[in-house]
Each structure stands twice: as C-alpha cells, then as structure tokens.
Write a structure and sequence with these properties.
Length: about 600
C-alpha cells in the first residue's frame, strides 16, 4: 500500500523562510514519489521514525566493510559479504546434484571448502587438503588413495606446503570427496582463498638429532585454532605460517608471512649484560613477511617468545592483519604491504593490544640459532634421535604419486616404519621409525615401487609447481619440463654437490623460484614465428642460513634450449669454481653481465 504523501507540520512558530523550505522539500518528495517518513523531533526534521536521527539534508554515509567504502572493495570481498565460503555447502550440494561447475563467485567460495575449479586448464575440481605439519598416518594415505582412485585421476601431488592435492574430480563427486576426507580425520577447510594455508613444520620434528624443539604440537594447535575461528577465514588475502624446530631439513619458514624459528638462550657469560635476559631455554624468534614471489624473505621482528605463546601471538597478528589489511587491491593485500605501509613497530603495538601477556624484545645476537640444515637432507637414510631408528627420505619426482604408490608407501610405513608418513615442502615424503634391521629391505621395496631413497644431486632438488597441465596461469609444463631436465642433465653431468632447481609457471612463484640455485619462471616466447614455452632463468638463490634472492640472468629461453644451456652453465661452474665452492656462491660472486658472458655459447 502506498502511504499518503506527508504534509508539512502545522505552521505554528515557523518563520516565512522555514515555511518556504518545508514546502520545497515536500514538493520534491512528492515529485520523486518516495514518500519517506519525515518527522519533527526536538526541533529537528528526521527521516528515521524510531531514532529520529538523520537530517534529510545530510547525505547518508556510505556503508563500509572492514573500514573500506563498499564501492572500493574487491569483488572477492563482495562475494564474501554476500555468502561466506563456509556457508556454501548447500550450493555445493546443488552443484553436485546437477554435476555443474561453479561460476567465478562460487569457484572462489568452494576454495574455502578445499575444492578448486581450475578452469580453463581443467574442467573439473581439485581437492587441496590440509595436512598440518605434513604428518599423515598410513591409514589416511590409504584413504586418500581411495579418493584419488574413486573420484580423482588416480594420482596425488605433494605440494610446496607439505600438503597433498588430488585432481580431476567431477562436481557430482565433490560431496563424496569431502565427506570421505572428514571420515579419514582430515579436512580441506580453508586450504584456499583468504585463509591461513596449511601450517608447515620441520619435516623431521620429534625424530631429528640436531633439532632444538619438536614443533609439531604448536603447528597442530594453530591448525585447530584457525579451523575453529570463523573470523580467520575472512582475511584480506592468503596467509602462511611455518614452525622451524632447527632440524636437518629446512622448512623454509623464512618464506612465510609468519615464521616461528626455534632458538636457544643460554645462561649469560660472567660479566655480560643481563638486562632483560630470559631464563635459559628454547624459545621462538618471530620472522615476518616472507613472500619470495615478491623477492622478500621474512625478517626477524625482534621478538623472543615462549613456544607456548606462539598460537596466541599468531592469532593476534592474524587479527591485526584482518582488521587493517587492504581490501581494495588483492595484489597489495598481503601482510608485507600492511607492514611496509605502517611499520613493524605499529604492527607489534596493535598485536600487543590483543594479547593477555607482554611481548619481550630480545636481541637476535644473544640467541643461539639452529645448526645449518642439510641441503637435500630430505632424501636418503638418517639416524633418528631415538636409538636404533632411522628415517628414510624418499624421492618423489615433482611430487606425483600414483594410487598404487600411495598404497604401497602406506604399507611400507606400517611394515617397516612407525606407521606415519611425513610430507615435506620439497615435494617429497619421509618414512620415519625404521629399525636398523629393516633399512635395506625398505630401500629395495622402494625401488620396486618406482621410488628411490637416493637421488642424484640433480633429481633430488627438483621442485615444480602445477604448471599448465592444471593451472590456468602457467605458461609452461613445469612438472614435465622438470623431469626432462633432471633426467637429461643427470646423464650429461656428474655433480658432486646438491643443487636445487625450482620451476614455476608464472610470476606467482608457487615453487619459489627465487630461492633456487637455479630458478626458472615460465613465459612464452617466439621461435621461428611460433609461440613456444620458455623460461626466464635466475641463478644464486638460497634460503635459511644461505638466504638469497636469485638474480635473473637469461630471459625467454625456449624450453628446447634449456637442457643445453644449463649443461653449459654447470660445466662452466665446475671448471671455474674455487675448491668446494657451491653453485650458488659461484654465481653470487659474479655480476649478471659476467654470468651472461661466461655462460654464452
Ligand atoms: Fe600457489 C595461486 C598452486 C604454494 C603463491 N597456487 C595458486 C593457484 C591456486 C592458482 C589459482 O589461483 O588458480 C594454484 C593452483 C594450481 C593447481 O591447480 O594445482 C597454486 N601454490 C600451488 C601449489 C599446489 C604449488 C605446488 O605445486 O606445490 C602449492 C600449494 C600449497 C598448499 O598446499 O597450500 C602453492 N603458492 C604457493 C607458495 C609457497 C607457499 O605457500 O609456501 C606461494 C608463494 C608464497 C606466497 O604466498 O606468496 C604461492 N599461489 C601463489 C600466488 C601469489 C600470491 C601473492 O600474493 O603473490 C597465487 C595467486 C593468488 O593467490 O591469487 C597462487
Ligand atoms: Fe599456477 Fe603460477 Fe602457481 Fe604455477 S606458480 S601453480 S602457474 S599460479
């Protein structure tokens, strides 16, 4: 029913000017046919019958979202406002019922449930799990094999966050996949979009002879914390957290938004400054803002915390990021950009406001840091902290395991190991708890499964992102090229030092090419008038104690030419290095121009 247009209140007490204004106002309202309530409360005209607040003469302020005007926020923020990914289960059921692939908005939402529609590369869904600390039981691996066999493409892939993905899932099977995953005691919630990604931890935590701290309990505690706090699924962007316990295998915590790095604080030496000296023990240093695709490693922020404070601290930092992070430009919405804009002191001050304990600043120089990690320590047989036990690092070329291999690995873990499997950010796996007597049997069994326990210095250091077989952003077949390169170079060269080659299909740098001894980023180039797959090639990257951003030396080299180019590069290095010099050290002491000349045909 349309309300009768309001009339002006009785003119008692109005000046001619006020009467003229009122008549004009009412005429305007009548013309627009809006008929809003116009009240007269306490000497004020109001549009709000209940509160009597707004003056019609004043423009209503624009609604905001996390402090940003709605007109400025990204489409992804609008999608989240409309319907959170966490509430999209009904939509998933609907898509499953109709075997329908999602549109852009639901593609975004379903990633919060762990399902990625990776169109146009593949017209299907990809499951990205969460495997906190990379730790799986044999039963879980077997269950994942069942998912890959029944509803996927018969394979799984280990990711650069010690995680597992299964591809080519039809929309009709999405619900089966997620319910089966839950039955296995696993989840995929928040493995994509604006959440904290899989929490990583040192792959040999708890079994390592050189570690300072078993960091698994903290990684698991944070995993459960973020899963159970809804606001942490609505960050401005993705977020990575890693726990480094100081073991033989580096978990590349310095490439994460927050890296917790175990260190030891000893008793002060006689006569030394003891101001603010904490009790001797193991603590975490806190590193912030690693994002190697943007050529930045995480930096120590001065804090020294007790390990038990790490979950609360991460949660507080996440909430500062959630409250103040950019919601208008996704390229600038990572933690790095918030801290670049406001400063680390501001960030820590905001974090402190959200904590029930005080934060201690303590000089990095007064902490004993971890012993150096072992390059390629993720491969081969090593003694555990526990007497008579060993762990075996298994080579999984570019992280791909067939269903048969998954089942066999599960069986081997149960027969010869502890029944657990560890996944690493180096896209491979470790079998822990192998008694001395079973080591040789296990090695033979692995070889029969098409896997290996030893790698050449080349094959062991290959890391490749999904590439154009599954990812729309990729210019190249990174995984296929990595295997070809590894095999070809292994036949032509005999390296006496481990070497890492990282291949990434686009600037997003999921395989972290800037921290590789050799980093290759896929591009397209013209060859004989045709567009072909090619790489920009960088040298001299490193991580942890050997941290460095690789320098780009070659641009747009067609893949067909890269094996020959890299053979020449590595032979030149072998011929000219100083005794024991690593490839990274060799390339770092030359300028880009010198390297181009040195490696020229
Ligand atoms: Fe990544 C986006 C694959 C680790 C930086 N990444 C993607 C998407 C989802 C492409 C997309 O938006 O459609 C890729 C899906 C391909 C597929 O179908 O398999 C993808 N990223 C991967 C994985 C599977 C690579 C791998 O082969 O191992 C890794 C999954 C990790 C996991 O289990 O959670 C993966 N991605 C990384 C890492 C390394 C890390 O997280 O430790 C990085 C660099 C660190 C960082 O966060 O910057 C990384 N991925 C990106 C970016 C660039 C983010 C940025 O702010 O610069 C994107 C693009 C985006 O987020 O919009 C991206
Ligand atoms: Fe895709 Fe680029 Fe990530 Fe490779 S680096 S998986 S091409 S987004």
């Amino acid at each position: 029913m349309i309300a009768t247009p309001p009339t002006a209140p009785p003119d008692a007490g109005f000046s001619p000017l006020q009467r003229e204004y009122l008549q004009g106002l009412m005429a305007g309202v009548a013309q627009r046919q809006l008929y809003p309530f116009v009240g007269y409360v306490g000497g004020q005209f109001t549009a709000d019958p209940a509160a009597g607040g707004a003056n019609l003469a004043a423009a209503a302020p624009e609604e905001t979202h996390h402090g940003f005007p709605l007109s400025e926020i990204t489409k992804q923020e609008l999608w989240k406002r409309e319907l959170s990914g966490l509430d999209s289960w009904d939509r998933l059921l609907e898509h499953a019922e109709q075997n329908k692939l999602p549109d852009d908005a639901d593609t975004f939402r379903f990633r919060s449930l762990g399902l990625f529609h990776v169109s146009p590369a593949q017209k299907s869904l990809m499951l990205r799990c969460r495997i906190p600390a990379g730790e799986l039981t044999a039963a879980q691996l077997r269950g994942l094999a069942e998912i890959a066999e029944n509803w996927g493409n018969g394979k799984s892939t280990i990711t650069t966050r010690s995680n597992l993905q299964i591809r080519e899932i039809a929309p009709k099977d999405a619900v089966h996949v997620l319910t089966k995953l839950t039955a296995l005691g696993l989840t995929a919630r928040g493995s994509g979009t604006d959440n904290v990604r899989n929490i990583t931890a040192s792959p040999t935590a708890g079994i390592d002879t050189q570690e300072l701290l078993d960091v698994r309990p903290y990684a698991h505690a944070l995993h459960h914390y973020i899963l159970n706090n809804r606001d942490l699924y609505d960050l401005p962007r993705k977020f990575n957290v890693a726990f480094e316990g100081g073991g033989a295998i580096d978990v590349v915590a310095d490439t994460n938004d927050i890296g917790f790095i175990a260190c030891r604080v000893g008793a002060p030496e006689a006569g030394a400054v003891t101001d603010g000296q904490p009790a001797p023990g193991v603590y975490f240093r806190v590193e912030l803002c690693g994002i190697t695709g943007h050529k930045q490693f995480a930096r120590d922020c001065g804090l020294l915390i007790q390990p038990g404070q790490s979950v609360a601290l991460a949660a507080a930092m996440l909430r500062v990021f959630g409250e103040f992070g950019d919601r208008t430009d996704r390229k600038k919405a990572r933690l790095k950009y918030l801290i670049d804009a406001r400063g680390v002191e501001w960030f820590l001050a905001e974090t402190r406001k959200r904590l029930a304990f005080s934060l201690v600043q303590f000089p990095l120089e007064r902490c004993q840091l971890r012993s150096p990690a072992v390059k390629h320590g993720h491969l081969g047989v090593y003694r555990q902290r526990q007497a008579g036990l060993n762990y075996v690092g298994v080579v999984v070329p570019v992280g791909i395991l067939s269903v048969k291999q998954m089942r066999r690995v599960a069986e081997l873990a149960e027969h010869y190991g502890s029944g657990f499997i560890r996944l690493t950010p180096w896209q491979n796996l470790i079998l822990p708890g192998v008694t001395d007597g079973f080591v040789e049997t296990l090695k033979r069994a692995l070889v029969r499964t098409g896997l290996h326990h030893e790698a050449t210095h080349l094959m062991g250091g290959l890391v490749a992102c999904t590439g154009n077989q599954g990812c729309k952003w990729s210019s190249t077949d990174t995984k296929g090229h990595a295997v070809t390169l590894g095999r070809t170079l292994s036949q032509r060269l005999n390296l006496d030092q481990p070497l890492n080659i990282h291949l990434t299909g686009c600037p997003n740098s999921c395989a972290q090419h800037y921290m590789g001894d050799i980093g290759m980023q896929g591009v397209k180039t013209q060859l004989n008038g045709e567009s072909v797959e090619a790489y920009n090639i960088a040298f001299g990257g490193g991580f942890g104690g050997d941290q460095a951003v690789a320098q780009q030396v070659f641009t747009g080299i067609p893949f067909s030419e890269t094996p020959r180019l890299l053979e020449r590069v590595l032979k030149a290095y072998q011929a000219r290095r100083t005794a024991g010099e690593s490839f990274a050290a060799f390339t770092r002491r030359h300028s880009v121009k010198q390297l181009q000349e040195l490696f020229a045909e």
